[in-house]
From TrEMBL:
This is Cyclomaltodextrinase N-terminal domain-containing protein. SUPFAM superfamilies: (Trans)glycosidases, E set domains, Glycosyl hydrolase domain. GO terms for biological process: carbohydrate metabolic process. It comes from Hymenobacter qilianensis. PANTHER family: ALPHA-AMYLASE FAMILY MEMBER (PTHR10357), MALTODEXTRIN GLUCOSIDASE (PTHR10357:SF210). One of its GO terms (molecular function) is hydrolase activity, acting on glycosyl bonds.
């Protein structure tokens, strides 16, 4: 750890000694292009190349004004502040740099905005499907590996290496997802991770997960590159589905191109010796916390091979914000999931969120803050608590509700924890914008946590798809994929069977699934499609009743309908009188079981099988 950190620091300190002798040149401009007609006229270009910072710059293009050239510690960088006025037309801009008799010219494109969908957002009407592209489906075996990349490996028999899944394969499976009732697809990051294998706990592992960016403006070519990502988004939109992009602001891979030649020492959070984050959220909201504890949480590195970006540096902040806007405009993604949200500088996050929302008012933003209580969770979203800092993040991944549902089912099947978590929703401004889930790529798979108890599996999924929020399901849950993170997280990131040519089983098809897997698939499909087609279930108001003796009842209702969800968490069937629920049931005389399509003619007493959640559409 210390050796890696010392090399990065030494690189920064020595830069001026060796860079000055090189002939000036421009090798990169980020953002790689921009668009006319954006709401924000200001833009800051990062210009990089040998001694690029020693050039005197000019831009001669109608509607584009070079306001200021900023130079920094490393003479290989210049940051150009531009203003692009509303009268500017699409075309090729010439960026000219001069030094004495030498002139360097770099072309840079200003594009027209198109009318394709972008920034549509996700809402409670959506059902998100989370997948790891490398582990979902392989549509183009020719891009499985590249000899000129730092990790040239590909081996499906090794859970720590890349397996070859890609965006073309995912695009081929869009009909499967649509049939399941999915309305939005969320991939773990698709941006280039040109990282070597890293030693994690004595095992050499690939960055197939995508969380170690090495070039923000390139989608990893092992996934198909920029063109494949744009094609996937277009195909998803054509199928009536949305796309969530996974963003990482906190850190980058240690082989990112600008880590090889840092613009300045303050580009990263630097420490006298390597310092890891404590992974503790308490110092941030603790009114009695020390400055050093807060600093370690926020500025400590997530792991040694993911350098921690300093978002208080205005150049870093501009780079990240502009890349976020570029991604939405270039690819047309609809929502923005933010990795390791709580470790970011929060004033920066407010600025970034505001910039995205100003350009795309409908976009949804939800971050990952892995906390275990509502106070800490509320801190990172729009809330009703008198914190000194006020977050403007619209939504979040609801770790508190996940823990409540999973732990309640795991230990005694009790819905009490879920009830209590929802009962504290008053701390949030809009809990309906939270993304709910039962597991993900970092957690044990839900079915295995339930001890392979299929009844508990169905109860959990019923809660997920009927309570407030935007439900998200981890790939393979619908076909009973399972495993615990024992010994490693590779166990919960297995390939989806049938996603690769020649797979012995194809569980994307009913013929390839077992009877039990088909039953589970149909269970999810029935509930997800009903939810999609009935606004009362995804957007209606929520009313819940105190659990009693293992029985838990809540309603989703609006002026057009009412759905009752009744859970019997005990191991015996019960007959439940309904007089207690008259506030929501008066006037209804019968019901239809959404999951079985059976008619219920007597609403005075409901028969609830053991370990079952029943979803009833009430009828007058």
């Amino acid at each position: 750890m210390k050796k890696l950190y010392s090399k990065l620091l030494l690189l920064v300190l020595l830069l001026p000694l060796w860079a000055v002798a090189q002939t000036p040149a421009i090798q990169r401009v980020n953002p790689t292009n921009w668009w006319v007609g954006m709401k924000e006229p200001k833009l800051q270009l990062l210009v990089y190349g040998p001694n690029a910072g020693t050039l005197t710059y000019s831009v001669n293009y109608p509607g584009v004004k070079l306001v200021k050239t900023n130079t920094v510690e490393n003479p290989n960088y210049a940051f150009l502040d531009l203003t692009i006025v509303g009268s500017a037309k699409p075309g090729t801009v010439q960026i000219v740099g001069k030094k004495g008799p030498q002139t360097v010219t770099q072309t840079w494109e200003l594009k027209a905005r198109d009318n394709s969908p972008k920034g549509q957002g996700v809402t409670q009407a959506d059902f998100i499907y989370l997948a790891m592209p490398d582990r979902f489906a392989n549509g183009d075996p020719s891009n499985d590996k590249f000899a000129d990349m730092r990790d040239p490996n590909h081996d499906r028999s090794n859970g720590f290496l890349r397996h070859g899944g890609d965006l073309a394969g995912a695009a081929q499976r869009l009909p499967y997802l649509k049939d399941l009732g999915v309305t939005a697809v969320w991939f773990t990051p698709v941006i280039e991770n040109n990282q070597p294998l890293t030693n994690e706990g004595g095992t050499m592992r690939a960055s197939y997960h995508g969380y170690g960016f090495t070039d923000h403006y390139n989608v990893d070519r092992r996934l198909g590159g920029n063109s494949a990502y744009k094609s996937f988004v277009d195909k998803a939109h054509a199928a009536g589905m949305k796309v969530v992009q996974d963003a990482v602001y906190n850190h980058i891979g240690n082989t990112h191109w600008f880590i090889q030649d840092l613009p300045m020492k303050s580009w990263l959070h630097q420490w006298p010796s390597y310092t890891n984050t404590s992974y503790r959220q308490q110092p941030i909201t603790d009114p009695y916390s020390s400055q050093i504890d807060r600093k370690v949480t926020l500025d400590g590195w997530f792991v040694p091979f993911l350098p921690d970006l300093n978002q208080e540096n205005p150049y870093v902040a501009n780079f990240l914000i502009q890349h976020a806007i570029w991604s939405v405009e270039n690819f047309g993604v609809d929502a923005w999931r933010i990795d390791t949200y709580m470790y970011n500088d929060q004033p920066f996050m407010n600025r970034c969120n505001a910039a995205l929302l100003a350009e795309y008012p409908r976009i949804h933003i939800f971050g990952e803050s892995s906390v275990n209580n509502v106070v800490d969770q509320a801190y990172y979203v729009r809330n009703n608590i008198d914190f000194k800092f006020k977050s403007n993040q619209p939504g979040a991944l609801d770790f508190v509700l996940e823990g409540a549902m999973v732990e309640g089912l795991k230990h005694d099947g009790s819905p009490q924890r879920m009830y209590e978590a929802l009962a504290q929703d008053a701390v949030y401004q809009d809990p309906g914008k939270f993304v709910t889930f039962l597991d993900n790529h970092d957690h044990d798979r839900f079915l295995s946590v339930m001890g392979d108890d299929y009844d508990k599996y169905k109860m959990g999924l019923t809660w997920l798809l009927t309570t407030r929020g935007i439900p998200s399901m981890y790939y393979g849950t619908e076909i009973l994929m399972k495993n615990l993170k024992n010994p490693t997280d590779a166990e919960v990131r297995k390939d989806f069977p049938g996603g690769w040519p020649g797979d012995k089983q194809d569980k994307f098809t009913a013929a390839g699934r077992t009877a039990k897997e088909n039953e589970a698939f149909q269970f999810v499909r029935t509930l997800a499609t009903y939810r999609r087609d009935h606004p009362v279930l995804h957007s209606g108001k929520l009313m819940q009743y105190l659990p009693q003796d293992g029985l838990y009842v809540y309603f989703r209702y609006d002026d057009k309908g009412t759905v009752m969800v009744a859970t019997n968490a005990t191991d015996k069937p019960v007959s439940m009188p309904t007089a207690r629920f008259s506030e929501r049931m008066t006037g209804f005389t019968k019901a239809r079981n959404v999951l079985t399509n059976e008619a219920v003619s007597d609403l005075k007493t409901l028969s609830l099988p053991a370990k079952t959640a029943v979803v009833l559409e009430l009828v007058r």
